[in-house]
Specification:
alpha+beta, 10 helices, 4-stranded antiparallel β-sheet, Glutamine Phosphoribosylpyrophosphate, subunit 1, domain 1, about 20% strand, single chain
């Protein structure tokens, strides 16, 4: 009898100890909801902390300006879609970033642009790839979402669709920048000297992972994500990266919105944006736990960086590449602007 009582006592103590342990936080637990929030990125990769001070200041100022554009729209009751489109438009117009004006060159010496946008409240999306005359690709992607019965247009088809809209058009020469052209020349020279898979140089790491993006939650609780890119320096004919692939580089539903930047092939193979969103939803994890799972467990060091916001207005920004141009703020006054980890 004493033996059974002892076992019962031990069992009771174990149950009590388990009950007293703090439970893991889940995203379904009651928590304060911020009226609005926004996060943006301008590309992830390896950028030396020894970059010239004037260039660093230019990046920081542009991130601040992009953030102010989106946050002002949200603070005045504007939609998440409007906020992220206008934020990305600004980044597309800034040649510091590999999107729009600052797009890198393909192996054929062209600037080919990709973009995608997704409305989390409807699960509708629009995407375009390989355009060469659209000044702001993210705006054309939004037109695909709202003004067509399709989701994805490519190359000549995307240009033809653009002809039916009022998006601003430019001559392909508009996208030329000398620094990006010289990056292509160096890449072509290195390609001739190297064979097989060889380690990337610091410059290749710095510019390989260019892309811009934004995610937001508005006062009505709607979430949205947008991503735009000039692709990869010296990319081969017809290559399409992760950005316009819904679920890979861009994804939003009614619980979380995600935008990616990094090695497109790795992001696509892991359906990365959707993976984060599903971990958040199906595991009941917090936004940060979901971000950590994707960046630290699913992907490998050097692969990518991400920004995300959730239904409560929490934001998260993380990379495993060493640096990511990024900024975020919310209605509670929280704010973060940075480049390095």
């Amino acid at each position: 009898m004493k033996k059974y009582l002892s076992l019962l006592t031990i069992f009771s103590l174990l149950m009590l100890a388990t009950a007293c342990q703090p439970a893991e936080q889940t995203n379904s637990e009651p928590q304060e909801t911020k009226e609005w929030s926004i996060a943006l990125h301008g590309g992830a990769g390896y950028v030396s902390e020894n970059m010239p001070e004037d260039r660093k200041e230019a990046y920081m100022a542009s991130l601040e300006e992009a953030l102010s554009i989106g946050s002002e729209i949200l603070a005045n009751g504007g939609s998440a879609l409007d906020a992220i489109e206008k934020t990305v438009n600004y980044l597309e117009d800034n040649e510091l970033y590999n999107a729009g004006k600052g797009a890198v060159f393909t192996s054929e010496g062209r600037n080919e642009l990709d973009a995608a946008i997704m409305d989390g409240s409807t699960l509708n999306a629009g995407a375009i790839t390989g355009v060469t005359t659209v000044k702001n690709p993210i705006s054309l992607a939004r037109k695909v979402m709202t003004d067509s019965k399709h989701v994805f247009f490519s190359a000549d088809g995307a240009e033809t669709f653009a002809d039916e809209t009022d998006v601003e058009r430019v001559d392909p020469s508009y996208f030329y920048t000398e620094s990006r052209y010289q990056s292509l020349q160096r890449a072509l020279e290195q390609e001739e000297e190297q064979s097989g898979l060889t380690p990337l140089t610091d410059e290749q790491k710095a510019w390989k992972y260019g892309t811009v993006g934004a995610v937001a939650k508005d006062v009505n609780g709607n979430l949205a994500a947008a991503t735009s890119t000039g692709g990869m320096t010296n990319k081969k004919y017809g290559r399409v990266g992760d950005v316009p692939i819904i679920g890979s580089g861009t994804y939003a539903n009614d619980e979380v919105a995600v935008s990616a930047t990094g090695w497109g092939e790795k992001i696509m193979l892991n359906v990365s944006a959707h993976t984060l969103a599903m971990f958040y939803k199906l595991k009941g994890a917090t936004l940060q736990e979901s971000m950590d799972y994707l960046v630290d467990e699913v992907l490998e060091p050097g692969d990518a960086g991400f920004i995300a916001v959730d239904k409560y207005g929490n934001y998260s920004m993380k990379t495993n590449t060493g640096s990511m141009f990024r900024a975020a703020t919310d209605s509670d006054g929280n704010k973060e602007v940075g480049i390095w980890e």
